[in-house]
Design a protein that fits this description.
single chain, about 375 residues, alpha/beta, Spore Coat Polysaccharide Biosynthesis Protein SpsA, Chain A, 2 domains, nine-stranded mixed β-sheet, two-stranded antiparallel ribbon, 15 helices, 11 strands, globular, disordered N terminus
Length: about 375
């Protein structure tokens, strides 16, 4: 039994750990979780048909966890198997190969106690690799991260995935409202967008978990994804997920205040939608959304508008795909001729790609550098 803690925040936590063929990692993940749980918390481990010695590794923990075994069906199925079994107030999904920090549980729970209006809490992670021979570890920074107020979290997440499940605590009623996980490679990203559509977050400062970087295969035995395929799978799946949401989301949800009451606010919503599309290489859709923005208002672009537009080139994926989309380039060129605001938007789009051109030059990619220079010059000339 876990010893009672009289100063523990009055919310209990159900930890869900889905695992598949991670016998070499899962014990360390479990130890990190179990060391910080409080009276009333629970750990549900779903063994997704592992074919290695995962069950042997889990055997010493049988009195401290609830073990669910299923035929291999993938991470989504494992999570959906566990969710109806949850008995606590909060749900914390932890990957079987990551390591949560010793105070992560209390920090995430305390944030929700202090912010009862928030549906979930979240915080940063860092990344690490095990050195050859297991003699040490090399730690790296978080990677892509976006600081934003709670009301901007939805659009920030649509732009790029940065808050991960190991660093999140979600109220059970939020999961009850949004439903089960979908069966896709980036099921955590798809779920996070649904959660952000229904609830506001509260951010927790500091590092909450260590994300392991390794060469292991992802996915199920039915749909495995090898290390060399991983970035492409993430990019393509994220693009499909975001496109699905963008096709149905009301325009007002692209604003922090979630309300359109002026032409200026309508324009900003179109700008935000356009940037999200561009960040996922949906270039033709992005160009159309920018054209909608150019039609919405004749007022000059504000500093906030410019800040939104400048994020068009800040995707963690390469943006070179714009050069192979001739229809999108033509639409961007026509944007400047649409209206005076269209000219201003074109100019800011050009400015946003300057750093991409410099980086291509520094990397010795002269072809891409020339293409960026050509794009920047064209947008600047058209925007004059």
């Amino acid at each position: 039994m876990i010893a009672p803690d009289p100063i523990s925040p009055p919310l209990s936590v159900s930890v869900i750990i889905p695992t598949y063929n991670r016998a070499e990692f899962v014990a360390e993940a479990l130890d990190a979780v179990l060391s910080q749980l409080r009276d009333g918390d629970e750990v549900i481990v779903v063994n997704d048909g592992s074919k290695d010695n995962t069950l042997d590794v889990l055997s010493p923990y049988k009195d401290r966890i609830r073990l669910i075994n299923q035929d291999n069906a993938g991470n989504s199925a494992a999570l959906n198997h566990a969710l109806p079994e949850v008995t606590c107030d909060l749900i914390w999904i932890v990957d079987d190969d990551d390591i949560v920090c010793p105070d992560a549980r209390d920090q995430l729970v305390s944030a929700l106690v202090e912010n009862p209006e928030a549906g979930f809490s979240y915080g940063r992670h860092d990344r690490f690799t095990d050195d050859a021979g297991g003699q040490g570890r090399t730690f790296m920074g978080t990677g892509y991260w976006f600081e934003c107020p709670p009301e901007s979290f939805l659009c920030a997440t649509l732009e790029d995935f940065f808050a991960h499940q190991c660093g999140m605590m979600v109220r059970k009623e939020v999961y009850d409202q949004v439903g089960l996980f979908v069966d896709t490679f980036s099921q955590d990203y798809e779920m996070l967008i649904r959660i952000a559509l229904h609830a506001l977050p509260v951010e927790v400062p500091g590092i909450l978990f260590h994300q392991r970087q390794h060469m292991g295969t992802r996915g199920s035995s039915i749909s495995p994804v090898r290390i060399e395929e991983r970035n492409t799978a993430w990019r393509d799946t994220s693009q499909a997920i975001v496109k699905k949401f963008l096709e149905t989301m009301p325009l007002e949800l692209f604003l922090p205040e979630r309300k359109i009451d002026t032409e200026v606010s309508r324009r900003r919503a179109h700008l935000q939608r356009a940037v999200i599309m561009a960040r996922h290489a949906l270039w033709q859709d992005s160009a159309r959304a920018f054209t909608e923005a150019a039609s919405a208002s004749g007022d000059p672009l504000s500093a906030t508008d410019i800040e939104v537009i400048r994020r068009i080139s800040q995707s963690k994926y390469e943006t070179d795909s714009v050069f192979s989309d001739q229809m999108a380039q033509q639409a961007f060129s026509e944007l400047a001729a649409h209206s005076p605001i269209g000219k201003s938007i074109a100019r800011q789009i050009g400015r946003s790609f300057v750093w991409r051109g410099r980086k291509a030059l520094q990397d010795g990619n002269l072809r891409a550098a020339f293409q960026y220079l050509n794009l920047i010059s064209r947008m600047w000339v058209l925007g004059r």
